[in-house]
Write a structure and sequence with these properties.
This protein has about 425 residues and is an all-beta fold. It is built from 1 helix and 35 strands.
Length: about 425
Amino acid sequence: MSKISWASVAIGLLMSSAAFPAGAPKSPLTSKTVTPADLNSAVLNMAVQWETREESKPEGLKAAPANLPKNAGFFVLHLGSNTAFALLLPGRLPKLYIDSDLDKDLSDEKPVTGKRLKSGTLGWGAGYHFTSLPAPTSQPGDTAALKLQAVVLNNDYLIVMPTSYRMGTVEIKGKRYRIRVVDANYNGRYDDVVVFRHRNKDSKENDRQPTYDSLAIDLNGDGEYSPSYDALGEVMPLPKLLRFGEDYFALRVASDGSEVTVEKTVPRFGTLDVGYPDAELLLWSENGVHQLSGSGGKWKLPEGNYCCYMIRISTTDTKKNKYMLTCRRDTGMLTDFDIVEDKTTSFKIGPPLAAQAKVNLRREMFRRTAVISASVVGQGGEEYLAGVQKNGEMQPAPGIRILDSAGKVVESGKLEYG
């Protein structure tokens, strides 16, 4: 029997014209203003974008305002499917330019002047707030009507935020739930359902710069919204379906964010088989967030497109000690897959396992430093953290040896968790 934890609440698929008859119940959504104090709100988690200052003019930028001061800083913004350039001129009254028409030319843009944030607003660093910034449009050459806001920290980080989101309540199986819908991809719409197709292992930016909107639903009624990274949570990419118990409800948000429709539906199912019996998975999808365990590594899921965000595999020795490895984000073949009606989508994860070391060179003032990290790779290409848990406790970090061409140990030591 398939086991889907958390009171069988999962969130997901299936929307057709038949699923929303004329009499389908509609719930109004109203606007909630966003301020810099909301920066750490879980509701905005998928929309807030942190961009780091570029040391020089970014590749692809055609033109910038003339006579720039030496402390001017460039930023590359990734908002939904758009990439846009920004320019910061620091000072007592800093100015920010954004390539709102996506023509890769900042010289024809009008700057917005920032205001210094009150001490303690963010809790760290000196910050400036920029309001009513023109949002990059979805088509080059269009005139931007959508606005966004940004915070600059220490002239090194540009944090982009929406100016508002939509809020309301929906009734499902006789109970009302608070919901929040965010235009996480900054295109002026609130109905962009998540699709991971064409995402691959190297597409690490997708998690930070979504091309979809997001949904928060207060399932336990505590007034808070927990994210969905290591376990089932209440903030997720905007889905098409909500599951409560054994019942499924199709979800549709109006493109302007004015209302939401929830209607009971019957999805079509396929099967996921990961080829390892003691596995736990956390999936994001157009069918919502699913936490799967048990069932010998096989589960029935609504048909649709999925991304596996977390994998845990475990094994038990003859003394009943339980060992566990955890994989986050780099989930190999499970990064992007489809479930098809009445068919089985099969993968092989877990053993045999292979240790892997990665070396990144970091340039400092007068030297280069090698940063060495380690992981364990499963047969499906999924990368587990090198640390193993034994009976729920993390074991000491693994050691490492560096050999020369003759196989002689030239350096050894232990890695650190971090």
